[in-house]
Amino acid sequence: MASTNETATLRKFPFQRDWPLSQPPEMAEVRKIEPISKVQLWDGSTAWLATRYADIKQLLNDRALSSDTLRPGFPQSSETAASFRKGQRVFARMDPPQHDQHRLMLTADFMIRRVREYRPYLDAMIDQIFDEMEETGGPVDLVQSLALPVPSRVITKLLDLPAEDSAFFLDRVQTAMSLDSTPEESQQAGADTLAYFARVIEERWDSEADDLISRLVRGRVRTGELTAEELQHMLHLILVGGFDTTANMIALGTLVFLENPDQIQTLRENPDLVPGAVEELLRYLSVAHHVAYRQAAADTSIGGVDIRAGDGVIAPIMAANHDPEVFADPEKFDVTRDARRHLAFGYGVHQCLGQPLARVELQAVFAKIFERFPNLRLVEKIENLEFHNSIIYGVESVLVDW
Amino acid sequence: MANKTIEVLHERCMGAGNCVEVAPDFFDQDPMDGTVILLHPQVAPGDEAVVEKAANVCPVAAIILHSAAS
User: Fold this and answer.
1) What is the CATH architecture of A4-401?
2) Scanning every residue of chain A, which has its alpha carbon at the shortest distance from the alpha carbon of B32?
C-alpha cells in the first residue's frame, strides 16, 4: 500500500475524454512520459496502468495475472463496476484451468463456420429495418431502429427466447453495467436477469430441442458437469457480452463514419473494404472501456517494471489500440488501414468468445447502411448527444435523416 | 527456399477462431469444441505472411512457425 505522500501525486484513473469519439488526452501523455505507471482509483487504492500495445498484449496473456474479482484488493474502476463484477460467477472471472473447462462448453456455438450461417438472416433483417425506416421517414433514432434490434434479435435467436423479452434484457444489462447506477441497482439488475434464466432453465429441463440452452441443460447440467446456477451466470454473460457491446459499435460506428464522410466515400467505392473497415472501427472506438482489470497472483514483470503479487494491473484496450508505435496516426479513422492486430476483443484466454458473431453482425450493417442511405446525416451536433458512462462505452440516441 | 512448419499448442487453444478467419487454408475449428485443427503444417514461402499474421492474432500464442532448419 502506498503512503499518503505517494498517492497524493498519482494520477486518478479512469481518465476523462475531451471529445466523445477520441481517446482521453491523458492516455497519450502517460504513454509518452511513463508508459507503465501507478494510478489511483476511486477508492484510494492504487494499480499499475499499462498504456503501450506491446505491454498490454503481454500482460493480458500473462498467467500470473488473475481475473478473479473475489480476490481481496482486486482493482475496479468504480464502486458500481466492483459490485457488478463481484456478482459475476462465470468463466470471465475465473482463471485457467477452471476457466477453460467452462468456456470450451460454448466455443463450438461461436465458431466462425457456425456464426456465418447468420449472415443471410442478418441481411434480410437489416433490409427490412431499412425498408421500415424509409416508410416511416426521417428523422429516425438509429439506436432504437437499428443498433439495438440487430444484436437483440440475434441473441434471442441464438438462445431461442421470445423476441418481446429483449426490452427487458436491454434495460437490465444497461442498468447492471452503467456507472451511473448505484451498486444496489446494478446488483438488482443482475439478479433479475439471473432469475429470468433460472426460469428458462427449469422450463427446458426435459427439452429435447436443439437450442443452445436446451443442449447445455441436457449435456452439462443434468450430467452434473455444471450447476444450474453456473449456467444462469453463463447465459447472463452471453447477454452482457453480445447485446450492448454490438449495439454500441453499430451506433457509435455510424457516428464515426458520419464524422468522416471521405471514409464513407472510400467504402462505397470499394465494398471489399467492409471487413477491414469493421476492424478499424473496432480499433478506433474500443468500446470495452472498463474491462481489462487484473490482479497479480504471483510476482511478474511487464515492460521492465516489477509487479508484485497482490498488485492491481489495468490494461485499457483503448490505450493499446491508439498506440502510435503500432497504429500510425491513431486518432485518424482510416478504412484502408490494416487494423486486424487491434485488441478490441481483448487478448489472452479471456479474449471475447463472441467475436466472430460480432464481426458478422457489424459487417452486415456496414455493408448496407451507406449503400441504402448515401446521404445519411446527423440531425443534431455530435456534442449534443448523450454518451453512456458505462463499463461499455455507448450513446443514448442518434437521430438521423437522409 | 525451404518450407517453414506450423506447430499448434493444442492445450493452450481457447477456440477464439482468429486463425481460421485470417488463414482459412491452414486452420479449421473442431466442430465439437471450436479448438484448432491444423490443415497443413507445411508453409510455402509465399504463404508465410498470412500464417505469421494468424500466429500474431492468436490470443493465447498457440501457433508457432518453425523455420525448416529447427
Assistant:
1) Orthogonal Bundle (1.10)
2) A108
C-alpha cell at B42: 507445411
Cα separation, A270 vs A112, whole angstroms: 24
pLDDT 10s digits, A74-86: 999 999 889 888 8
C-alpha cell at B30: 473442431
Q: Do B29 and A110 touch (CB under 8 A)?
A: no
pLDDT of residue A181: 92
Residue B43 sits in which domain range?
A: 4-66
Interface list for chain A against chain B, based on CB atoms closer than 8 Å? 60-61, 100, 103-104, 107-108, 110-113, 340-341, 345-349, 351-353, 355-356, 359
Domain residue spans in chain A? Answer: 4-401
- What does the pLDDT read at residue A284? 98
Q: Read off the pLDDT band of B2 (50, 70, 90).
A: confident
Residues of B in contact with A363 (CB under 8 A): none
Question: Which chain A residue is nearest to residue B56, measuring alpha carbons?
Answer: A341
Q: Does the pLDDT of residue A33 top 50, yes or no? A: yes
pTM of the entire structure? 0.95
Mean pLDDT of the A359-374 span: 98
Give the chain B residue whose CA is nearest to the CA of A345. B59
Do A243 and A170 form a contact (C-beta atoms < 8 A)?
Answer: yes
Q: What is the CATH number of the domain that holds B28?
A: 3.30.70.20
Number of domains composing chain B: 1
CA within 13 Å, CB half, B32: 2
In this predicted model, what pLDDT tens digit does every residue of A80-116 receive, in sequence order? 889 888 888 899 999 999 999 999 999 999 999 999 9
pLDDT in tens, A184-240: 999 999 999 999 999 999 999 999 999 999 999 999 999 999 999 999 999 999 998
User: What span, in angstroms and rounded, lies between the C-alpha atoms of A49 and A211?
Assistant: 42
CA distance A114 to B31: 9
- Residue B41 gets which letter from DSSP? -
Q: How many residues does chain B have?
A: 70
> Which of A348, A352, A356 comes nearest B60 by C-beta?
A348
Q: Hey, of A62, A111, A225, A347, which one would you mutate to test binding to chain B, going by the most B CBs within 10 A of its CB? A: A111
Counting one residue from A and one from B, how many pairs have CB atoms under 8 Å apart? Answer: 66
Model ipTM value: 0.92
Angstroms from B22 CA to nearest CA on chain A: 9
**B-chain residues within 8 Å CB-CB of A320?**
none
Length of chain A: 402
Which residues of chain A does B13 touch, with a Cβ-Cβ cutoff of 8 Å? Answer: none
Whether the CA torsion A369, A372, A374, A377 is positive or negative: it is negative
- Rounded mean pLDDT, A143-157: 94
